[in-house]
């Protein structure tokens, strides 16, 4: 650095000294690294509802095996149940498979899959056809990267 080190005076002829501010440089925000940790059913439901702007049903009218009326996630579970994404015995803390997640996504997007004996496979095939797998692999757990 040029200038007087003792007094802190800068040399007016030298640019970009450490104390200068360059208004042309903007701070680059770090992008969040997506996790490869498996997600729970509740985490995936919350993501889907946010992504598809699904309004939550707050009325406490359905009893679930793993979620009480007082649970902060009750409205998510009830809404998922009403959307036919889950059943009354579904466990919100269970890790979610890609296969099940693809069915949930297909139901929300109203994919036409017809009637098949293997509904998971039918939705998987449709997701593949629509290029909606997003890295999900059959039999694997869904992660932030594969949402």
Secondary structure elements and their pairing?
Layout: H1 41-51, H2 74-82, H3 98-109, H4 119-129
Keywords for this entry:
147 residues; mainly alpha; 29% helix
Write the element-wise H/E pattern from the N-terminal end onward.
Answer: HHHH
Count the E strands. 0
What is the global morphology?
globular
Strand content: under 5%
Low-confidence stretches: 17-22, 25-29
Percent of residues in helices comes to 25-40%
Give the number of domains. Answer: 1
Average of the residue pLDDT scores: 85
- What is the distance, rounded to the nearest whole angstrom, between the alpha carbons of the first and last residues? 50 Å
Structural class: mainly alpha
Summarize the main sheet. Answer: none
Radius of gyration: 25 Å
The number of helical elements comes to 4
Summarize the structure.
It is built from four helices and no strands. With 147 residues, it is mainly alpha-helical.
Would you give an account of this structure?
The chain is an all-alpha fold and 147 residues long. The protein has one domain (41-146). It has four helices and no strands. α3 packs across α4. The longest helix is centred in the last third of the chain and has 12 residues, at 98-109. The two termini are 50 Å apart.
